[in-house]
Amino acid sequence: MATQVDAWSTAVQAEGILPSEDNRAAVSSPYSDDEALNEAEVNGNWTPQEKALHEARLKAKAKRRLRRSSSRNSTSDSFSESKDSAGGDPNSPKGKVNTNDRKSRTGKGRGLPKKGGAGGKGVWGAAGMVYEDEEPDIQDPNYDESAQGDTVYEKIVPEVDEKEMEKMVNPIVQEYFEHGDTKEVQMLLKELNLGSHKYEVSSLAVSLSLEGKASHRELTSRLLSDLSGKMLSQGEMGRAFDKMLKDLPDLILDTPDAPQMLGQFIARAIADHVLPMNFLDCYKGKVDCDHARVALDRAAVLLSMKREMVRLDNVWGVGGGLRPVKHLVKEMNLLLKEYLISGDVSEAEHCLRDLEVPHFHHELVYEAIVMVLESTGDTASHMMMKLLQSLWKTGLITVDQMNRGFQRVYDELPEISLDAPHAHTIMETFVDLCFQESVITKQLRDTCPSRGRKRFVSEGDGGLIKN
Fold this sequence. Notes:
mainly alpha
């Protein structure tokens, strides 16, 4: 039996198991004091079968003891003083197994915490770990767009179609003709995504001004000058005027003078450096359309004049109330004199509209009445009454302007009578005539001043009145 035990110990060592001193003692003496048997008694009383069974039990018990002791000694490096703790009191707090301990209890590994102490449910991670801010994932089902703080939304404006271009730009240009603020036009145009059709803004503005008044064309030239270099380049301006030259056969249907006006636009644009100086040179010998040739010739003539830059600044004239008062008074006097000669009421109305000064029409009423007071005969009074009646019915002269013109004459009648002695008599006759033809109101007629103070012949004439 001792031979078998020695052989088993040798086999264990051959397998790589190096038993400690305790193990060797357990192997050398596998029987405890209680289980020790008399060698002679076993050999004398046991049968061979019983003897073999007993030896097998002893081998199994020794093997279990060896395995238990070897696993305990393998963790001696991880546990402090494993021998002392093994021999300590199992009932003490130190001897109890900590259920919250994250160290492996299977005896495997190096005895370190799982995942370095960063594992487990509800664990923030390893000590000293710094987490960076992570961008929220839009695909996350818990993603809340309103909780992300200041969200920046990018406004995307679709490009304006060529068909919608005219519908959007025309109201802007028409409104510009009323206020004349080029900065507002630039702001409104920047809100539109014009894209490749941006150059058509100039052609649309010029086309609208051709159907309008001289003041509109002056405002259009200023608009082109302000848009040049900021929103439109010289190349884009040239492309716009080239398109208008090709569209002249259609423009001339609504505006017969379109070729001459377009030529003035081209000359003014070159003078304002909106178009390059060699713009006209690009068309020499390459124009087949007669209307386009007329426009280019008109521009060439204007640019060849002496001091053309100063002249082209006023190529459209000074529109509306920007004209000096003396100039407006002179124009109205000329208008009335031509009317007295020709008697054409429609031409007088047309000339008055071209002045574009509706707030200054009271001056026309004043000058017309003064001409009647300074004239001789009844012809001038009837013609002026007819003109004022026509202007009143067409609404060209309002009630306020009519009353203001008559009131100015009432106030200055004493001074006028110095040059025209019969001014009071003529004034009373003319006022009655205008009231009968419903040109003025009854209240305005009643406010007409009467004749001046009656003068006596002498102190002792007996009260006779001088005729």
